[in-house]
Amino acid sequence: MFGAALKQLDTQRRIIGAVMIREIYLRFGREGIGFLWLFAEPLMFGIPVFFMWSIVRPKYEHGVLMMGMVITGYLPILLFRHVGGVMLVLVRSSVDLLYHRQITLFDVFVARGLLEFISNIMALVIAFLLFYILGDVSFPVDFAMFLIGYLFMFWWAMAIGLLVGATAERSVLVEKTWPVYSYTYMFFSGFFFLADWLPPKLREVALWQPSLQAYEMIRAGMFGKTLKTYGSPSYTALVLAVMTFVGLLALREARRHVEVE
Amino acid sequence: MAIRVNGLCKDYVTESGQLRRVLDNVTFELQRGEKIVLLGNNGAGKSTLIRLLGGVEVPTRGSIELGMTMSWPVGFGGAVLPMLTGNDNIRFIARIYQKHIAEVKDFVEDFAQLGKYLSEPVKTYSSGMKARLNFALSLAVDFDCYLIDEVLAVGDQRFQRRSHEELFEKRASRAMILASHITEIVTAYCTRALLLHRGRGKVFDDVGLAFDIYRSI
What is the pTM assigned to this prediction? Predict the structure, then answer.
Protein backbone atom coordinates (compact mmCIF):
# COMPACT_ATOMS: atom_id res chain seq x y z
CA MET A 1 0.00 0.00 0.00
CA PHE A 2 2.69 2.42 1.09
CA GLY A 3 5.01 1.15 -1.62
CA ALA A 4 2.35 1.66 -4.28
CA ALA A 5 1.75 5.23 -3.13
CA LEU A 6 5.47 5.90 -3.27
CA LYS A 7 5.67 4.50 -6.78
CA GLN A 8 2.72 6.65 -7.83
CA LEU A 9 4.46 9.69 -6.41
CA ASP A 10 7.61 8.84 -8.32
CA THR A 11 5.64 8.46 -11.57
CA GLN A 12 3.98 11.81 -10.94
CA ARG A 13 7.34 13.45 -10.33
CA ARG A 14 8.77 12.05 -13.55
CA ILE A 15 5.79 13.17 -15.61
CA ILE A 16 5.83 16.65 -14.15
CA GLY A 17 9.57 16.85 -14.88
CA ALA A 18 9.05 15.77 -18.49
CA VAL A 19 6.24 18.30 -18.95
CA MET A 20 8.44 21.03 -17.43
CA ILE A 21 11.24 20.38 -19.91
CA ARG A 22 8.67 20.45 -22.70
CA GLU A 23 7.22 23.71 -21.41
CA ILE A 24 10.65 25.34 -21.37
CA TYR A 25 11.18 24.43 -25.03
CA LEU A 26 7.65 25.48 -25.88
CA ARG A 27 8.05 28.91 -24.34
CA PHE A 28 11.64 29.74 -25.09
CA GLY A 29 12.54 27.53 -28.02
CA ARG A 30 15.73 25.61 -28.34
CA GLU A 31 17.95 28.26 -29.81
CA GLY A 32 19.96 31.10 -28.30
CA ILE A 33 19.95 31.46 -24.56
CA GLY A 34 16.92 29.14 -24.40
CA PHE A 35 16.01 28.29 -20.87
CA LEU A 36 17.99 31.23 -19.47
CA TRP A 37 14.99 33.31 -20.53
CA LEU A 38 13.30 31.68 -17.60
CA PHE A 39 15.40 33.87 -15.31
CA ALA A 40 15.76 36.81 -17.63
CA GLU A 41 12.05 37.36 -18.20
CA PRO A 42 10.97 38.55 -14.74
CA LEU A 43 14.21 40.46 -14.35
CA MET A 44 13.46 42.41 -17.49
CA PHE A 45 10.19 43.43 -15.86
CA GLY A 46 11.72 44.04 -12.50
CA ILE A 47 15.10 45.71 -12.84
CA PRO A 48 13.91 48.88 -14.64
CA VAL A 49 11.07 49.24 -12.15
CA PHE A 50 13.48 48.83 -9.23
CA PHE A 51 15.94 51.41 -10.55
CA MET A 52 13.13 53.85 -11.16
CA TRP A 53 11.93 53.46 -7.60
CA SER A 54 15.43 53.78 -6.21
CA ILE A 55 15.79 57.12 -8.01
CA VAL A 56 12.42 58.70 -7.21
CA ARG A 57 12.05 57.57 -3.59
CA PRO A 58 14.16 58.23 -0.51
CA LYS A 59 16.47 55.46 0.67
CA TYR A 60 14.61 54.98 3.93
CA GLU A 61 10.86 55.05 4.37
CA HIS A 62 8.94 54.21 7.56
CA GLY A 63 12.25 53.41 9.19
CA VAL A 64 13.20 50.62 6.77
CA LEU A 65 15.20 50.43 3.56
CA MET A 66 12.71 51.38 0.82
CA MET A 67 14.20 49.03 -1.79
CA GLY A 68 13.68 46.08 0.54
CA MET A 69 9.97 46.87 0.47
CA VAL A 70 9.92 47.30 -3.30
CA ILE A 71 11.78 44.12 -4.26
CA THR A 72 9.91 41.90 -1.83
CA GLY A 73 6.69 43.58 -2.90
CA TYR A 74 6.98 43.63 -6.66
CA LEU A 75 8.29 40.14 -7.35
CA PRO A 76 5.56 38.29 -5.40
CA ILE A 77 2.81 40.18 -7.23
CA LEU A 78 4.60 39.46 -10.50
CA LEU A 79 4.52 35.78 -9.57
CA PHE A 80 0.78 36.04 -8.91
CA ARG A 81 0.13 37.70 -12.26
CA HIS A 82 2.34 35.35 -14.24
CA VAL A 83 0.94 32.18 -12.72
CA GLY A 84 -2.63 33.34 -13.42
CA GLY A 85 -1.58 34.35 -16.92
CA VAL A 86 -0.11 30.98 -17.91
CA MET A 87 -3.08 29.15 -16.42
CA LEU A 88 -5.55 31.05 -18.63
CA VAL A 89 -4.76 28.64 -21.45
CA LEU A 90 -4.13 25.61 -19.23
CA VAL A 91 -6.85 23.41 -20.72
CA ARG A 92 -6.55 24.53 -24.32
CA SER A 93 -2.81 24.01 -24.45
CA SER A 94 -2.91 20.66 -22.64
CA VAL A 95 -5.43 18.87 -24.85
CA ASP A 96 -2.83 17.15 -27.01
CA LEU A 97 -0.94 15.93 -23.96
CA LEU A 98 -4.08 14.32 -22.57
CA TYR A 99 -3.83 11.66 -25.30
CA HIS A 100 -1.14 10.28 -23.05
CA ARG A 101 -3.36 8.90 -20.34
CA GLN A 102 -0.92 9.23 -17.47
CA ILE A 103 -0.67 13.00 -17.95
CA THR A 104 -3.37 14.92 -16.13
CA LEU A 105 -4.37 18.58 -16.22
CA PHE A 106 -3.06 18.74 -12.67
CA ASP A 107 0.41 17.63 -13.82
CA VAL A 108 0.53 20.39 -16.42
CA PHE A 109 -0.74 22.87 -13.83
CA VAL A 110 2.00 21.92 -11.37
CA ALA A 111 4.71 21.90 -14.04
CA ARG A 112 3.80 25.41 -15.20
CA GLY A 113 3.45 26.75 -11.69
CA LEU A 114 6.83 25.36 -10.66
CA LEU A 115 8.50 26.91 -13.69
CA GLU A 116 7.06 30.30 -12.78
CA PHE A 117 8.21 29.83 -9.20
CA ILE A 118 11.77 28.87 -10.16
CA SER A 119 11.92 31.77 -12.57
CA ASN A 120 10.64 34.19 -9.94
CA ILE A 121 12.97 32.98 -7.21
CA MET A 122 15.97 33.28 -9.50
CA ALA A 123 14.98 36.84 -10.35
CA LEU A 124 14.53 37.56 -6.65
CA VAL A 125 18.00 36.28 -5.83
CA ILE A 126 19.64 38.21 -8.65
CA ALA A 127 17.80 41.47 -7.92
CA PHE A 128 18.52 41.05 -4.23
CA LEU A 129 22.24 40.54 -4.75
CA LEU A 130 22.43 43.48 -7.13
CA PHE A 131 20.83 45.93 -4.71
CA TYR A 132 22.65 44.41 -1.77
CA ILE A 133 25.92 45.30 -3.43
CA LEU A 134 24.56 48.82 -3.99
CA GLY A 135 23.71 48.97 -0.28
CA ASP A 136 19.97 49.42 -0.88
CA VAL A 137 18.76 46.21 0.78
CA SER A 138 19.80 44.18 3.79
CA PHE A 139 19.43 40.45 4.38
CA PRO A 140 16.19 39.21 5.95
CA VAL A 141 16.26 39.32 9.73
CA ASP A 142 14.19 36.16 10.04
CA PHE A 143 14.86 34.11 6.94
CA ALA A 144 12.45 31.27 7.83
CA MET A 145 9.55 33.71 8.17
CA PHE A 146 10.51 35.38 4.91
CA LEU A 147 10.49 32.01 3.16
CA ILE A 148 7.16 30.99 4.71
CA GLY A 149 5.63 34.24 3.51
CA TYR A 150 7.02 33.75 0.01
CA LEU A 151 5.75 30.18 -0.14
CA PHE A 152 2.31 31.34 0.96
CA MET A 153 2.40 33.88 -1.84
CA PHE A 154 3.22 31.08 -4.29
CA TRP A 155 0.39 28.98 -2.88
CA TRP A 156 -2.00 31.93 -3.21
CA ALA A 157 -0.90 32.40 -6.85
CA MET A 158 -1.40 28.68 -7.48
CA ALA A 159 -4.81 28.58 -5.80
CA ILE A 160 -6.02 31.49 -7.94
CA GLY A 161 -4.24 29.99 -10.97
CA LEU A 162 -6.10 26.72 -10.41
CA LEU A 163 -9.46 28.52 -10.36
CA VAL A 164 -8.53 30.61 -13.40
CA GLY A 165 -7.25 27.58 -15.32
CA ALA A 166 -10.29 25.49 -14.49
CA THR A 167 -12.84 28.14 -15.46
CA ALA A 168 -11.26 30.30 -18.19
CA GLU A 169 -12.03 27.81 -20.95
CA ARG A 170 -15.76 27.90 -20.40
CA SER A 171 -16.19 31.39 -19.02
CA VAL A 172 -15.51 34.32 -21.30
CA LEU A 173 -15.86 36.53 -18.25
CA VAL A 174 -12.85 34.97 -16.51
CA GLU A 175 -10.83 34.90 -19.71
CA LYS A 176 -11.45 38.56 -20.55
CA THR A 177 -11.33 40.10 -17.09
CA TRP A 178 -8.23 38.33 -15.74
CA PRO A 179 -5.68 40.76 -17.24
CA VAL A 180 -7.55 43.79 -15.84
CA TYR A 181 -8.23 42.12 -12.54
CA SER A 182 -4.67 40.90 -12.06
CA TYR A 183 -3.37 44.39 -12.74
CA THR A 184 -5.73 46.30 -10.45
CA TYR A 185 -5.32 43.67 -7.78
CA MET A 186 -1.75 44.89 -7.39
CA PHE A 187 -3.09 47.94 -5.51
CA PHE A 188 -5.10 45.89 -3.02
CA SER A 189 -2.68 43.00 -2.64
CA GLY A 190 -0.47 44.58 0.02
CA PHE A 191 2.37 45.43 -2.31
CA PHE A 192 2.09 49.15 -1.51
CA PHE A 193 1.11 49.10 2.14
CA LEU A 194 1.43 47.40 5.49
CA ALA A 195 -1.64 46.33 7.46
CA ASP A 196 -0.36 48.55 10.25
CA TRP A 197 -0.85 51.68 8.13
CA LEU A 198 -4.56 51.05 7.70
CA PRO A 199 -7.28 52.24 10.10
CA PRO A 200 -8.20 49.33 12.44
CA LYS A 201 -11.63 48.68 10.84
CA LEU A 202 -10.19 48.56 7.32
CA ARG A 203 -7.20 46.53 8.49
CA GLU A 204 -9.49 43.82 9.77
CA VAL A 205 -11.16 43.47 6.38
CA ALA A 206 -7.92 43.79 4.41
CA LEU A 207 -6.37 40.96 6.42
CA TRP A 208 -8.98 38.55 5.09
CA GLN A 209 -6.98 38.35 1.91
CA PRO A 210 -4.22 35.77 1.82
CA SER A 211 -1.93 37.99 -0.23
CA LEU A 212 -1.78 40.69 2.45
CA GLN A 213 -1.19 37.95 5.01
CA ALA A 214 1.69 36.61 2.93
CA TYR A 215 3.12 40.11 2.49
CA GLU A 216 2.94 40.67 6.24
CA MET A 217 4.97 37.50 6.81
CA ILE A 218 7.46 38.39 4.08
CA ARG A 219 7.96 41.80 5.70
CA ALA A 220 8.16 40.39 9.20
CA GLY A 221 10.92 38.12 7.87
CA MET A 222 12.59 40.95 6.03
CA PHE A 223 12.60 43.65 8.72
CA GLY A 224 11.83 41.89 12.00
CA LYS A 225 10.57 44.01 14.87
CA THR A 226 11.25 47.33 13.14
CA LEU A 227 7.76 47.04 11.65
CA LYS A 228 4.53 45.93 13.26
CA THR A 229 3.08 43.06 11.19
CA TYR A 230 -0.08 40.99 11.39
CA GLY A 231 0.57 37.80 9.37
CA SER A 232 -1.09 34.61 10.58
CA PRO A 233 0.27 31.41 8.98
CA SER A 234 -2.54 29.21 10.33
CA TYR A 235 -5.33 31.47 9.00
CA THR A 236 -3.61 31.78 5.62
CA ALA A 237 -3.03 28.02 5.34
CA LEU A 238 -6.68 27.35 6.14
CA VAL A 239 -8.05 29.79 3.55
CA LEU A 240 -5.64 28.57 0.88
CA ALA A 241 -6.43 24.92 1.60
CA VAL A 242 -10.14 25.61 1.11
CA MET A 243 -9.46 27.56 -2.10
CA THR A 244 -7.24 24.77 -3.41
CA PHE A 245 -9.91 22.19 -2.67
CA VAL A 246 -12.53 24.21 -4.55
CA GLY A 247 -10.01 24.71 -7.38
CA LEU A 248 -9.39 20.97 -7.64
CA LEU A 249 -13.13 20.30 -7.87
CA ALA A 250 -13.39 22.96 -10.58
CA LEU A 251 -10.49 21.36 -12.44
CA ARG A 252 -12.21 18.00 -12.33
CA GLU A 253 -15.31 19.60 -13.79
CA ALA A 254 -13.17 21.25 -16.48
CA ARG A 255 -11.65 17.86 -17.34
CA ARG A 256 -15.13 16.49 -18.03
CA HIS A 257 -15.67 19.23 -20.59
CA VAL A 258 -12.38 19.02 -22.46
CA GLU A 259 -13.11 19.10 -26.17
CA VAL A 260 -10.72 18.43 -29.02
CA GLU A 261 -11.14 20.95 -31.81
CA MET B 1 -9.04 -8.77 -19.12
CA ALA B 2 -11.10 -7.04 -21.74
CA ILE B 3 -12.14 -3.58 -22.79
CA ARG B 4 -15.79 -2.99 -21.95
CA VAL B 5 -17.63 -0.06 -23.41
CA ASN B 6 -20.98 0.31 -21.78
CA GLY B 7 -23.85 2.60 -22.75
CA LEU B 8 -21.50 5.27 -23.98
CA CYS B 9 -23.08 8.67 -24.65
CA LYS B 10 -21.46 11.94 -25.62
CA ASP B 11 -23.25 15.27 -25.85
CA TYR B 12 -21.82 18.49 -27.17
CA VAL B 13 -23.27 21.95 -26.74
CA THR B 14 -23.82 23.58 -30.12
CA GLU B 15 -23.20 27.25 -30.88
CA SER B 16 -26.89 27.96 -30.35
CA GLY B 17 -26.66 26.44 -26.89
CA GLN B 18 -28.49 23.22 -27.64
CA LEU B 19 -27.34 19.75 -26.68
CA ARG B 20 -26.39 17.51 -29.55
CA ARG B 21 -25.97 13.80 -28.84
CA VAL B 22 -23.12 12.55 -30.99
CA LEU B 23 -22.85 9.09 -29.46
CA ASP B 24 -25.96 7.42 -28.20
CA ASN B 25 -25.73 4.37 -25.98
CA VAL B 26 -22.86 2.57 -27.69
CA THR B 27 -21.91 -0.78 -26.15
CA PHE B 28 -19.26 -3.30 -27.17
CA GLU B 29 -16.53 -5.52 -25.78
CA LEU B 30 -13.07 -6.34 -26.95
CA GLN B 31 -11.10 -9.33 -25.73
CA ARG B 32 -7.33 -9.60 -25.66
CA GLY B 33 -5.91 -9.95 -29.17
CA GLU B 34 -9.22 -9.26 -30.82
CA LYS B 35 -9.45 -6.80 -33.72
CA ILE B 36 -12.54 -4.77 -34.40
CA VAL B 37 -13.20 -2.32 -37.21
CA LEU B 38 -15.15 0.90 -36.77
CA LEU B 39 -17.34 1.71 -39.73
CA GLY B 40 -19.41 4.83 -40.23
CA ASN B 41 -20.00 7.81 -42.47
CA ASN B 42 -18.78 11.27 -41.64
CA GLY B 43 -20.72 12.50 -38.66
CA ALA B 44 -21.64 8.99 -37.49
CA GLY B 45 -19.60 9.47 -34.31
CA LYS B 46 -16.41 7.63 -35.22
CA SER B 47 -13.97 10.37 -34.32
CA THR B 48 -15.83 11.09 -31.10
CA LEU B 49 -15.67 7.43 -30.13
CA ILE B 50 -11.91 7.44 -30.83
CA ARG B 51 -11.42 10.53 -28.65
CA LEU B 52 -13.31 8.85 -25.82
CA LEU B 53 -11.40 5.59 -26.24
CA GLY B 54 -8.14 7.53 -26.45
CA GLY B 55 -9.04 9.06 -23.10
CA VAL B 56 -8.73 12.68 -24.18
CA GLU B 57 -12.43 13.42 -23.83
CA VAL B 58 -14.72 12.19 -21.07
CA PRO B 59 -18.10 10.49 -21.76
CA THR B 60 -21.30 12.30 -20.82
CA ARG B 61 -22.78 8.98 -19.71
CA GLY B 62 -21.72 5.37 -19.72
CA SER B 63 -18.30 3.93 -19.10
CA ILE B 64 -15.16 2.57 -20.67
CA GLU B 65 -13.51 -0.13 -18.59
CA LEU B 66 -9.95 -0.64 -19.70
CA GLY B 67 -8.81 -4.09 -18.71
CA MET B 68 -5.69 -3.64 -20.81
CA THR B 69 -3.43 -0.80 -21.80
CA MET B 70 -4.58 1.22 -24.79
CA SER B 71 -2.39 3.29 -27.07
CA TRP B 72 -2.96 6.84 -28.07
CA PRO B 73 -4.23 6.96 -31.69
CA VAL B 74 -1.38 5.47 -33.72
CA GLY B 75 0.40 8.16 -35.71
CA PHE B 76 -1.33 10.99 -33.88
CA GLY B 77 1.17 13.84 -33.84
CA GLY B 78 -0.51 16.45 -31.68
CA ALA B 79 1.79 15.89 -28.76
CA VAL B 80 4.91 16.21 -30.93
CA LEU B 81 6.18 19.77 -30.67
CA PRO B 82 7.39 21.33 -33.94
CA MET B 83 10.19 23.34 -32.34
CA LEU B 84 11.58 20.27 -30.64
CA THR B 85 13.90 17.91 -32.46
CA GLY B 86 12.96 14.34 -33.22
CA ASN B 87 15.29 13.27 -30.41
CA ASP B 88 13.63 15.65 -27.92
CA ASN B 89 10.27 14.13 -28.74
CA ILE B 90 11.73 10.65 -28.36
CA ARG B 91 13.03 11.57 -24.91
CA PHE B 92 9.64 13.00 -23.91
CA ILE B 93 7.78 9.83 -24.87
CA ALA B 94 10.43 7.67 -23.18
CA ARG B 95 10.17 9.72 -19.97
CA ILE B 96 6.42 9.63 -19.65
CA TYR B 97 6.11 5.96 -20.56
CA GLN B 98 9.03 4.92 -18.38
CA LYS B 99 11.05 3.43 -21.21
CA HIS B 100 14.79 3.55 -21.72
CA ILE B 101 15.60 6.46 -24.00
CA ALA B 102 18.11 4.38 -25.97
CA GLU B 103 15.52 1.67 -26.57
CA VAL B 104 12.92 4.08 -27.95
CA LYS B 105 15.57 5.84 -29.98
CA ASP B 106 16.80 2.62 -31.56
CA PHE B 107 13.31 1.64 -32.55
CA VAL B 108 12.43 5.04 -34.02
CA GLU B 109 15.75 5.30 -35.85
CA ASP B 110 15.26 1.93 -37.41
CA PHE B 111 11.58 2.31 -38.19
CA ALA B 112 11.27 5.93 -39.31
CA GLN B 113 14.60 6.04 -41.16
CA LEU B 114 15.07 9.74 -40.49
CA GLY B 115 18.83 9.54 -40.09
CA LYS B 116 20.47 12.81 -39.04
CA TYR B 117 17.10 14.59 -39.24
CA LEU B 118 16.34 13.26 -35.76
CA SER B 119 18.54 16.00 -34.35
CA GLU B 120 16.71 18.69 -36.36
CA PRO B 121 13.52 20.46 -35.25
CA VAL B 122 10.39 18.65 -36.39
CA LYS B 123 9.15 21.82 -38.11
CA THR B 124 11.82 21.30 -40.78
CA TYR B 125 10.43 17.85 -41.66
CA SER B 126 8.35 17.14 -44.71
CA SER B 127 4.83 15.88 -43.99
CA GLY B 128 5.90 12.35 -44.88
CA MET B 129 8.81 12.52 -42.42
CA LYS B 130 6.51 13.82 -39.68
CA ALA B 131 4.10 11.01 -40.31
CA ARG B 132 6.94 8.50 -40.07
CA LEU B 133 8.15 9.95 -36.78
CA ASN B 134 4.64 9.97 -35.29
CA PHE B 135 3.98 6.45 -36.41
CA ALA B 136 7.29 5.22 -35.04
CA LEU B 137 6.75 6.94 -31.68
CA SER B 138 3.39 5.28 -31.16
CA LEU B 139 4.77 1.86 -31.98
CA ALA B 140 7.83 2.33 -29.77
CA VAL B 141 5.67 1.91 -26.70
CA ASP B 142 4.19 -1.47 -26.03
CA PHE B 143 0.40 -1.57 -25.64
CA ASP B 144 -2.11 -4.41 -25.31
CA CYS B 145 -4.49 -2.62 -27.61
CA TYR B 146 -3.75 -0.21 -30.43
CA LEU B 147 -6.13 2.51 -31.49
CA ILE B 148 -5.75 3.14 -35.20
CA ASP B 149 -7.52 5.99 -36.95
CA GLU B 150 -7.11 6.11 -40.73
CA VAL B 151 -3.36 6.31 -40.78
CA LEU B 152 -2.52 3.22 -42.75
CA ALA B 153 -2.00 5.17 -45.94
CA VAL B 154 0.87 7.42 -44.84
CA GLY B 155 4.35 7.45 -46.31
CA ASP B 156 5.66 5.79 -49.44
CA GLN B 157 5.10 2.19 -50.48
CA ARG B 158 8.13 0.92 -48.63
CA PHE B 159 7.06 2.60 -45.40
CA GLN B 160 3.52 1.33 -45.79
CA ARG B 161 4.88 -2.19 -46.12
CA ARG B 162 6.98 -1.70 -42.98
CA SER B 163 4.11 -0.32 -40.94
CA HIS B 164 1.85 -3.10 -42.12
CA GLU B 165 4.47 -5.62 -41.03
CA GLU B 166 5.02 -3.94 -37.65
CA LEU B 167 1.33 -3.65 -36.87
CA PHE B 168 -0.30 -6.76 -38.27
CA GLU B 169 2.51 -9.29 -38.27
CA LYS B 170 4.77 -8.45 -35.31
CA ARG B 171 1.80 -7.29 -33.23
CA ALA B 172 -0.59 -9.96 -34.44
CA SER B 173 -1.35 -10.98 -30.86
CA ARG B 174 -2.47 -7.48 -29.85
CA ALA B 175 -5.99 -6.16 -29.77
CA MET B 176 -6.81 -3.38 -32.19
CA ILE B 177 -9.57 -0.88 -32.73
CA LEU B 178 -9.31 0.13 -36.31
CA ALA B 179 -11.09 2.91 -38.15
CA SER B 180 -10.36 2.23 -41.79
CA HIS B 181 -12.03 1.86 -45.14
CA ILE B 182 -9.28 -0.24 -46.66
CA THR B 183 -11.32 -3.37 -47.31
CA GLU B 184 -8.38 -5.74 -47.83
CA ILE B 185 -6.81 -4.95 -44.46
CA VAL B 186 -10.08 -4.90 -42.57
CA THR B 187 -11.35 -8.21 -43.93
CA ALA B 188 -7.95 -9.83 -43.50
CA TYR B 189 -7.48 -8.95 -39.82
CA CYS B 190 -10.72 -7.86 -38.18
CA THR B 191 -13.08 -10.45 -36.84
CA ARG B 192 -15.84 -8.07 -35.82
CA ALA B 193 -17.21 -4.71 -36.85
CA LEU B 194 -18.87 -1.87 -35.00
CA LEU B 195 -21.10 -0.01 -37.41
CA LEU B 196 -21.94 3.51 -36.30
CA HIS B 197 -24.88 5.37 -37.72
CA ARG B 198 -26.13 8.69 -36.33
CA GLY B 199 -24.50 7.99 -33.02
CA ARG B 200 -25.96 4.54 -32.60
CA GLY B 201 -23.69 1.51 -32.73
CA LYS B 202 -24.25 -2.10 -33.72
CA VAL B 203 -21.75 -4.92 -33.48
CA PHE B 204 -21.45 -7.46 -36.31
CA ASP B 205 -19.63 -10.76 -36.10
CA ASP B 206 -19.61 -10.90 -39.88
CA VAL B 207 -17.32 -8.12 -41.15
CA GLY B 208 -18.37 -8.67 -44.77
CA LEU B 209 -22.02 -8.18 -43.88
CA ALA B 210 -21.19 -5.04 -41.89
CA PHE B 211 -19.37 -3.63 -44.92
CA ASP B 212 -22.35 -4.37 -47.18
CA ILE B 213 -24.74 -2.61 -44.82
CA TYR B 214 -22.30 0.29 -44.34
CA ARG B 215 -22.15 0.77 -48.13
CA SER B 216 -25.91 0.74 -48.43
CA ILE B 217 -26.57 3.50 -45.88
Answer: 0.91
